[in-house]
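User: Predict structure, ligand iron/sulfur cluster.
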Amino acid sequence: MEVYSHSRLSTFEQCKLKFKFRYIDKIIPDIEKTIESHLGNSVHKTLEWLYKNVKQNRIPEIDEVVSNYAKNWKEDFEEDIPIVRRDMNVSDYFNKGIKFLVNYYLNHKPFDDNTIEVEKEILINLDGKGEYKIRGFIDRLSYNLKTGEYEVHDYKTSNNLPSQEKIDNDRQLALYSIAIKEIFGEDKKVILVWHYLSFNKKIHSRRTDEQLKKLKTETLNLIKEIESTASFTPTKSALCNWCEYKPICPAWGNKPPARQLTLEEYYKIKEKKS
Ligand code: SF4
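Assistant: Predicted complex:
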């Protein structure tokens, strides 16, 4: 059985060479994250903590939320984290996170939209036989008692606000709605909700059963394409500036390392020796 993730599929679509570095060669880059991903993770962790408290009938004060965010930021921060944008520094990114959380808090308090789970792990059976699965994590799942809909919430910290058309074609949350229907019943209604924190804006979308069926087929076809690919050519784009493999990418005149041992291989050899 092969388990894929949305980010694995997206990486292949973005750049086949990056896909090879990350998922086939399993090269561990010198620097694994960017300041943007660090900001995103710190904000996500804080919202997870907030809703875990809410589920236990305690609403943290706003300053507790900010303190929790500062703790998360500090815990995972690495001094050599790259900052691509020249007009921004570490404090700017840190303060952005505070702004996102304060706005979110003021808009959503008392957080009474009936949250069922946070960071919910889901496994989607794509082919009905269990040979191809997609694993994902839903930021937050709630059940709207008024509309009878399951709500799949996703927090975004990026600076780009997508069009409604793009949102209506988004693969990730649509796949998650397949999982919700598999868990709670095919007849259940699901609404997808994106929280674009940078814009203090919520965007919604729904999928029909026909659209979900089509999506399953398309995703399965993409996986088959990945598995039959033998040529992993680089695709240069603006996103390369945020690619953790740029320092070893031949498309940028850099030298890929001689084949390195992955951690997995290293531990296997170690196990054999002991
Ligand atoms: S730097 Fe660009 S071209 Fe090179 S692997 Fe990364 S995404 Fe691909």
